[in-house]
Amino acid sequence: MHISPTPEAIAAFAQRGLSGPIRMLNLLRFRETADYSASPDLAPGEPISGAEAYEIYSTLTIPLLTEVGGRAIFMGTGGQLLIGPSEARWDQVLIIEYPDVAAFGAMTQDPRYHAGAGHRTAALADSRLLPMQ
Predict the structure, then answer these.
(1) Strands, sheet with 89-98, edge to edge from the N-terminal-most edge strand
(2) Mind listing the pLDDT tens digit for each residue in 56-84?
(3) For residue 44, what are the CA distances in angstroms to 33, 49, 57, 112, 116?
(4) Residue 117's closest CA among 48, 51, 39, 34?
(5) Nearest Cα to 30, choosing from 129, 117, 125, 120?
(6) Other CB atoms within 10 A of residue 115 CB
(7) The pLDDT value given to residue 1
(8) How far is CA 15 from CA 10, 18, 20, in A?
């Protein structure tokens, strides 16, 4: 299960020296029922699906993305892989564009981002994030 970057992955990303616009490929697998055990203060009154929890996260995050000059350039439904392990699947695929690495960093360091990030953690069973240029 991979939900958040490790300190080593963050350091390696910073050392890539990317300049100009970057795109982040997000592969997301949702939990059947969102797990708010890490952020019980964010839990809704009734259980919700991982997809619903991710929608809450997205609603909170899209304005922050826009503030730093970013945008979602693709959002689509995933599924089973055509090439790859037959048991592997991704529920949703996103491509998010940032004007530069600094904009990505500014958004992810914003206290408002951190206030809602628990919805993302509750939503996801697994994920991948691939910076592309």
Answers:
(1) 71-80, 89-98, 22-30, 124-132
(2) 999 999 999 999 999 999 999 999 999 99
(3) 12, 11, 13, 19, 13
(4) 39
(5) 125
(6) 13
(7) 78
(8) 9, 8, 15
Measured in whole angstroms, the distance separating CA 53 from the mean position of its chain's CA atoms is 12
Fold for 18-132, please state it.
Answer: Alpha-Beta Plaits (3.30.70)
Total number of residues shown for the chain: 133
Helix (H, G, I), strand (E, B) or coil at 121: helix
In the chain, where the domains are located: 18-132
How sure is the predictor about 3, in pLDDT bands with cuts at 50, 70 and 90? confident
Distances from the Cα of 61 to the Cαs of 5, 15, 67, 99, 125, in angstroms?
18, 26, 10, 16, 19
Distance separating alpha carbons of residues 123 and 103, to the nearest angstrom: 24
Pairing of strands 71-80, 89-98: antiparallel
For residue 96, pLDDT over 90 is answered with yes
Distances in whole angstroms, Cα of residue 75 to Cα of each of 24, 30, 69, 92 = 12, 15, 18, 7
